[in-house]
Amino acid sequence: MTAAGLVRVLTARGLTVATAESLTGGLVCAALTDVPGASAVVRGGVVSYATDVKAGVLGVDAALLARVGAVDARVAAAMAEGVRRVLGADVGVSTTGVAGPDPADGQPVGTVFVGVSSSAGTRTERHLFSGGRDTVRRESVRAALDLVAAEVENLRDTGREAGYGGPTDAPPTTREEAP
């Protein structure tokens, strides 16, 4: 979904969104805030490029980060939950991964985890994008917008549209996707 389409859907449903971004460095939030009227739905964003920011600002477990690194589904889930909590949004979305040029945290270039958190729960997707750094980052933004759109549809279908209910006790679900 385009950023403009997502802003329209969020506005129509009365939902807010917040972003927690690592490899995208604020591009998801920028895509959303480029849309006129985005101030009605975008709560803000946290660029948590550094691992200690993921822990200190977003509340990602430091022991988890030390054990698995930042490129992990559980980290993406915790980032999405953290930004949702910190910024008081209905939906939190996160990106973490390896844009390149070199592998990181034992993951190859192009490995990206996108997370989303809402009152319906938390889930993540793993992607493996091919191409250079710019392509990986651009595709990560697209994946994040698509995941938020799917979550908003899920909220509509479950009747759980608004209100921060805190992180769920259930482990995040993960979907793998390759190009």
UniProtKB/TrEMBL annotation:
Looking at the record, which segments are called Disordered? 157-179
Q: Which InterPro entries does this chain map to?
A: CinA-like_C, CinA_C
Listed Pfam families: CinA (PF02464)
Domain named CinA C-terminal: residues: 5-150
Q: Which NCBIfam families match?
A: PncC_domain
User: What name goes with this protein?
Assistant: Nicotinamide-nucleotide amidase
